[in-house]
Amino acid sequence: MSDASNDPAQMEGPTPEKGLAAAEKTGPMLAADGTPLKRSLARALRRQKIRALMLIAPLLLFVLVTFIAPILDMLFRSVENQIVSETLPRTVVVLEDWDGTSGELPGDPVFRAAYEDIFLAAEYKLHTRLGTRLNYELTGVSSLFRKSGRGLDDIGEVYQDQFEDLNENWDEGLFWAELMGSDSWLADAQGWQEGQPLPEFELREGMADLLPRTSAAYQDFARFTRVEDEENLIDEEPWTLVHTALYEDLSAGDVSGYSGPHAAELQAAADLVASPDFETADIRAVFEEIDEDWLDIEVWQTIKTYSPNYTSGYFLNAVDMQKTPEGPALRDEDERIYGLLFKRTLFMSMVITFSCIALAYPIAYLLATLPSRTANLLMILVLLPFWTSLLVRTSAWKVMLQQQGVINDVLVWIGLVDDANRLVMINNQFGTIVAMTHILLPFMILPMYSVMATIPPSYVRAAKSMGATNFTAFRRVYFPQSIPGIGAGSILVFILSIGYYITPEIVGGTTGTFISNRIAYHISSSLNWGLAAALGTILLAVVLLLYWAYDKIVGIDNVKLG
Known about the structure:
- The chain is mostly helical.
- The chain has helices at residues 16-26, 37-76, 82-87, 89-95, 108-123, 127-135, 141-151, 153-166, 173-180, 183-190, 207-210, 212-229, 240-252, 263-274, 283-290, 297-305, 313-318, 338-369, 372-383, 390-401, 406-414, 429-452, 457-465, 470-498, 502-507, 515-524, 529-553, and strands at residues 321-324, 327-330.
- It is built from 27 helices and two strands.
């Protein structure tokens, strides 16, 4: 028989079951403003989150603009390669049909496209930048483009002189403007006054079909004159490139049906071009005259290989490989330097880390076990190097470690080293390890000390009271509790050392430099930012990989700073 006093339905007064039943009948609970309580709470929480986000928004924006964005931009440079396709657009298109592995030079259309592209690049002063970019891949290309920018005028001057001898108006800006420009634009250009915006050039109707190459070249000239020189087009004589394009149009087409401005002069020029006495220029021969390297197939292979907007070439160079017409290939053995630098950087960073552990552990232990007054005094000595410039500390080691330095003098004085056989401790790996261990030692001591200071001394005393020796108590009780401090200091020192470049640059010489020194060189000296970005990206990936391995083996949650 059931007890009626335990039945919720028979009980008098409020119960949870009755409250739920009443809620089901009356609907959801409402806030003071009549909205459902659940929705009102969600809205309040959302307002709190927005308010908190607004408080940290300036800091997030500052970090994004000054830190994240520059890093992403630098990483993007490791694959960006638009300079070739933007500076040589016509050449890149024509080179697509050329087989770089055939062993034959590209045809005349490629040389014609290169002539026009390099001529325009020289006017905009972009040819030297392009030459510098390609010079990273093939030595000598930089001077090749520099000389070509100055020498390609010779091609157009052959035609310009003959047209000018026929009629001197062919070298006058107004004559060309009347021939090529529309009537409305010409009226605006002639009525233009100083201080007013220059009218944008408008090509005469039908001229693009009659003289296609000339129209394109003249439009380029008009755009450059208006935007770059800020001059009125009717007062400027056209480029020699325009005269070359005029010759090509007149030799390939018929202008007898043209009846616009200067039709007679245009027909006379066509008759001159058709005469057997008209002198022409061989564009390929002119390129060869400028520099014989233009007939080197490797130059054109390099241009075609690096014509895409995005390239893996920087990353291949960063791992001692290169792009070839046949595909990626290893560089010659005497050119493989980056693999060696990466190995050296990792090895020396680990040696520096272990050296700091060996030196910092007894110091941190001493600081943690001494009385507070004495420990504070010694802590000042640990922090003292932070009050001295990094450059000063590194230079001091250079003075101390050199063959005529303090350390060698002391060794000679006490008789351990002969004066004629002084130790070589500078400009090598030893000097880098010694100097960087001294510089990074405080970064290892502080995490260790902060953890050791939290270890209760009673644990060790309890172990000794139970019969453990001093060594056993340290090994089985104290040391395991100090491992999180070792882990924190090791990560800090290793990451700092792997990216150092000032100290290795000063004391490392040729065998003690890091990959970071090479990155700094490409950024500040060679200006090969793409390769520097690729090296930096690989270094970042290596650090993240090691961090992941450390987390899997040790566990990042076990790292503590006290």
